[in-house]
Amino acid sequence: PREIFLKDYKMPDYYFDTVDLKFTLGEEKTIVSSKIAVYPRIEGSTPPLVLDGQDLSLVSIHLNGKALKEEDYHLDARHLTIQSPPSGKYDLEIVTDICPQKNTSLEGLYKSSGNFCTQCEAEGFRKITFFQDRPDIMAKYTVRIEADKSLYPVLLSNGNLAEQGDLEDGRHYAVWEDPFKKPSYLFALVAGQLQSRDDTFVTRSGRKVSLRIWTPADDVPKTAHAMYSLKAAMKWDEDVFGLEYDLDLFNVVAVPDFNMGAMENKSLNIFNSKLVLASPETATDADYAAILGVIGHEYFHNWTGNRVTCRDWFQLSLKEGLTEFSSDMGSCTVKRIADVSKLRNYQFPQDAGPMAHPVRPHSYIKGAEVVRMYKTLLGSQGFRKGMDLYFKRHDGQAVTCEDFFAAMRDANDADFANFLLWYSQAGTPVVIVNTSYNPEAHTFSLKFSQDIPPTPGQSVKEPTFIPVAVGLLDSMGKDIPLSTVYHNGTMQSVSSNDQSVCTTVLRVTKKEEEFVFTDIFERPVPSLLRGYSAPIRLESDLTDSDLFFLLANDSDEFNRWEAGQVLARKLMLNLVDDLQRNKPLVLNSNFVQGFKRILCDSSLDKEFVAKAITLPGEGEIMDMMGVADPDAVHTVRTFIRKQLATVENNRSSEEYVFNHSNLARRALKNVALAYLGCLEEKEFTDLVLHEYKTATNMTEQFAALAAIAQNPGKTRDDVLDDFYGKWQHDFLVVNKWFALQAMSDIPGNVENVRKLLSHPAFDLRNPNKVYSLIGGFCGSPVNFHAKDGSGYKFLGEIVLQLDKLNPQVASRMVSAFSRWRRYDEDRQKLAKAQLERIMSTNGLSENVFEIASKSLA
Ligand code: DPP
Ligand code: ZN
């Protein structure tokens, strides 16, 4: 396979005006007839027309109604080429047979639990029919679906239902028309036995929109939260961006077999059931929050992705970054903390490894950070102006990240310096800050230096534009009002309209740069990078006592949490060092004090406290070591957790409600439970067991189960059996049960996971089950990275089995190997051997090949 680069982008030779599709759905095969109105980009030009197509069997081609002979076209495994098409406009009619029943890749048209559904992003449409399967081909679609009426009573596609009726032999049909031009990746079709929860939303201009969430009949009661989330998202997009929904119908369909989380197909979103179905008994607070976020995310794509789409797949972050940014919906500190943790645990490690790549093409976590920086620099109003201009300029177009940048810049007449580098440079910038106070001059100086470590293919990096939000605390812990700052020899006012501000955004753009605050009458403690204003690694000369001070006082809640994390990271690294030198482990008492202070501060939000007393993840700590030592990090983290285990019982028997105060209470209680669970002492085990038995919702029941599952033994086995017995009828809960066991740190757990592969509830063809069991296992540092290589061997075997069924899922799993060079020599050898074994296998998919070869490179 040949790698494709952004610079290779070429405009298409042909555009498509309209696309008429007809699906004759059947049990043996499905017949797809497509009629495309083709016209050349350059009038009069007639280069060959090259269509993408994969796993299709071609039945016939007609051009302007005339059958093409075999010598008029060329067919290979990936393309259908018409050598000499006529000049001007013409109609192309192609009939193909496909077999959705046998499609285990879950790309294109496939069957999931008896129903037909589609997944076309990024390049699945070519598995449905021959097409220029690229996002800059935007066309108007009409879709006719014919199917057996009793097996597939519901027939859905994009847009509005234009017509429906009965046919002979117990069959029926429906015709859908989408009035908006769209790229093929947004096409969708669903056919099956489904029921809907119906509701309506009245847009602010008074348009009445029917909302329908489709699932198998039994699951309809579990869609209330998804419906609530959808309406909240529709309202938010109107309130914040003035963006209204543009059709009279919006459908969401939940399917149990889905490679990703969800897909934003125009007016027919298709979701992984996991992100739609919830009830207090079966879903946790985390599930509820994920549903709210992802329903919002997909809905927001209606404008940021669908109305304005991507020119090519290198622009993916244009739609994903922007949409993910919106799905924050108003953002609170705890959400920010969760996002930053994700960035640190997944994105930064990737940035530092062989899979490092720029925001463009496809980093959407970091893409959202880039969008957030625009907002930090422009303020809410300036950002809104930029959004308005973006839609004014580009509605109905397929565009690039530069177009978005230009809209933000032009709407605000802004100086964005070298900001565009965020899109093209891979790696995480490291920013070092040195501070100094001059008591005579009453100035406080911040000296910045920035550096981006080299990444594969990019050895030299330019300094980039980093917005650093800063505040200064006085000795009482209060914010000092900021008036002026010297920068580049000029004095700038940081207050606006004589109103003093306590946080200012410094524009750090050079390799080395100094900012000096004036009128500072005592040595302040700086609060740097407030709200995590840029996705960087920050290192500063702040002392431990400065950090404890920030932990206790910072008005920026995010930085309060951050100070605790910086302290905890230092503490953990020091203890790892002690352990490696065979020194006894002793916990610094200041740390315990700081920790207690947070716990006892009743003015703090409980959900925030729960985050603040949670230690950084093992991945994050390993990432900071020269050679990652999973065993030592695990031992140290467990040691600290045992030391900190304190009783904090917040139990209450009130009815489950998904609102802030209730979930905050549960969050804090569950963190405490997890701490208790690591004590192993009988009394505490009994307490956790009692929690498990009396819990009235999944959030609390599962937290108790997880706490119990930390310790091997009969109690653990019994409770796990009990849980399965209770929930075996609910596949989403069973997946949690798989994941919990898979992630376990119990020594030798690979054998348990192997056994679970043949558990009747497991199925390698279902992505969610794979993510729970195999993905979960790879997330356990001690067992996946077991010294004897058993974890690596296990993953190697599974990847090869999976690749034959579903290359996308297999490639996700193989990426667990990508950072093998971070470990000691023995582990390196063992992991490398598995990668080589995968690479030497015949018939490997492109997806797995790409990840495995890059990992070895
Ligand atoms: N475009 C899809 C989404 O936004 C990809 N997972 O969810
Ligand atoms: Zn998305």
From TrEMBL:
GO terms for biological process: proteolysis. Residues 427-540 form the Peptidase M1 alanyl aminopeptidase Ig-like fold domain. Its cofactor is Zn(2+). One of its GO terms (molecular function) is metallopeptidase activity. Residues 227-419 form the Peptidase M1 membrane alanine aminopeptidase domain. Residues 544-857 form the Peptidase M1 alanyl aminopeptidase C-terminal domain. Keywords: Aminopeptidase, Hydrolase, Metal-binding, Metalloprotease, Protease, Zinc. The keyword Transport does not apply. The keyword Transmembrane helix does not apply. Residues 21-186 form the Aminopeptidase N-like N-terminal domain. Signal peptide: none annotated. Belongs to the peptidase M1 family. NCBIfam families: pepN_proteo. This is Puromycin-sensitive aminopeptidase.
